[in-house]
Amino acid sequence: MKLSIKIEELAMFLLGVFWFELLGWNWWWFIGLFFVPDISMLGYLVDKKIGAWMYNVFHHKAIALAFYIIGTISRSDVLQLIGIILFSHAAFDRCLGYGLKYEKGFKYTHLGEIGNSN
Q1: Average pLDDT along the chain
Q2: Contact indicator for 50, 43 with CB cutoff of 8 Å
Q3: Which whole-number Å values give the CA distances from 94 to 28, 47, 88, 110, in the listed order?
């Protein structure tokens, strides 16, 4: 994966950290909830299609931003928190090369094949 994409994703992760700071919640919430979106990988226990669908729902930044925006408009800190966690987690994963999944298997992502150095 290209360095420029990793830098961009790192910037988005830091934006999520900034948004979290603005909420004023204790940092243990961020740390404790940060890996919760990875529960979506349990879908792979059913099959590749369900696994990819579940993973993509919990790692799609547009969905994360929708939660954050709806939370901001409705003044719901909980919805904002959900959006921030989903957004930050997705950006962090993409820094590591884990993109949205294709149905043919976990290692096939929109950023390329996981483990492939290209």
Answers
A1: 93
A2: yes
A3: 23, 23, 10, 10
